[in-house]
Amino acid sequence: MTTQFNADDGQPLRISRAGSRPSKPGSLDNVTGATRSEVLFGAEEPARSSAAWVSFQRGARTGWHSHPLGQVLIVTVGVGRVQRWGGPVEEIRVGDVIRIPPGVKHWHGAMSDSEMVHLAIQEQQDGRVVDWLEKVSDEQYLQPVNVVV
Known about the structure:
Largest sheet: 9 strands, mixed
Order of helices and strands: EEEEEEEEEEEEHE
Radius of gyration: 17 Å
CATH topology: Jelly Rolls
Structural class: mainly beta
Number of strands: 13
Helix content: under 10%
Number of helices: 1
Low-confidence stretches: none
Mean pLDDT: 92
Number of domains: 1
Shape: elongated
CATH superfamily: Jelly Rolls
């Protein structure tokens, strides 16, 4: 079997070392509670994807939002919640992979008794990766969770 590859264009590999990337708290305009994001990589032409570690303290959550090309979440720590507009609140746990379709209004965050960390992967379209909407109310957040075993 033959493997094909592009000729070496002289560009070096770039390694972003753990601990070298800044993290920042979530904007209180878009989240409730304490969150932090560490951008792992941004979209660089011709690629469109970007990714970040996002951590949520107990009870913290994003506001309602959507992504023009969708989003994938991979839970790495704790227990959380996710909901699409009009759907049930779903419990998410370590190892769960959540695929959110393009343009779907949703939110995600930690349970009230657990922190949660997820890897968030999304693509940009026309320079946008997210469209922030209104905050998730306490009533919406506190809806019973649909636990799937």
